Amino acid sequence: MFTIALLIAGSLGGGAYAAVQAQDDRDRRTAAPRDRDRPSGGPAGPGGPVTNVADGARVAPLRRVVPPDVLAVGGGPISAAQVQRIAKLGRVRDVIAVAGGAVQLQGRSVNAFAVDPSTFRSWTPPRTAKAEDLWTALAADQFVVSATAAEQLRLSKGFPYAVVGRTMPTIMMGGSGALGLPGIDMLVHQKTGRSMGLVPNIAVLVNAPGVPPATTVRAVGRILGPAANVVNLHEQRFQSPANGSYLDLYKSAAKTCPGLSWTVLAAIGQVESDHGRNPGRSSAGALGPMQFMPATWKAYGVDGDGDGKADIMNPYDAIPGAARYLCANGAGRGGKQLYRAVWHYNHADWYVQKVLALAKAYSDQYR
Description:
By secondary structure, this protein is of the alpha+beta class. The chain has 14 helices and 12 strands.
């Protein structure tokens, strides 16, 4: 009988939350020889028709990045009513529910989410969200794995592998990247997940800008009950440079302005949007993770990721745009010029003092 069991740790990533294991013991006993008995990195062999790239597969362009603050995994399917209650919590901006479960890949248990690539990409780290090839592959019914899984399981892009759930389809690997979700090491298309018997609405991701994540964790936990495992994704143990984090973007952008410390950019990013958690339009009309006024962005916006456009909402563009604006006002020269440059960013002395104090705190923290 197909069962659901709760695991305390992720299968590969070591995440300390309850991931959902969905496996059919009877199918496992009668399945074809497991992949670990075959040469590592090669094709998976018999197990079902290979899912190839579908002609005309489409994925919607990335419109924005939605940093997930909380991940909750239910003890069973999360109801639509519970999702609605989470969405109505104070200052919750976005909620997405996904199917999931544990499958067998290369003889190992791997926690997988089944998603719509056009909507889910926004919830992944910026570098992954921008990787068109990954989402196009997922839209074409290939699977995508974390960089950790690709290395540990010795998976090769473009090769087919048997993936064992309730059924055992053979699916092409479409690529790998940082998924940013502890313990989740695989993404499949939602229709593939349905055919494999992954559990619908087993997990939710929550974006609640301006709220301490621990507060959201408690509120979500009350809605889902004690069987759910709710995780604060901002905890240090879940942070990884491989995610293409805001910290990396601040450091990279600061290099474009000699003399400008990345800590100043980080401080402005914290004050303006809490590092992308609140990028919406302000009362003054400012937009994006660095809260540019559109007229200022038109003059100083940067195409930081080389996609042919300077997008005020994209942190890959907005953060180097902020560095360019600060540099144009003398921030790289330090001292009074730095003070003046930050004042130009927001014409208030209290703002400058807050930014510089935060910059010092970042400098002390990351010595």
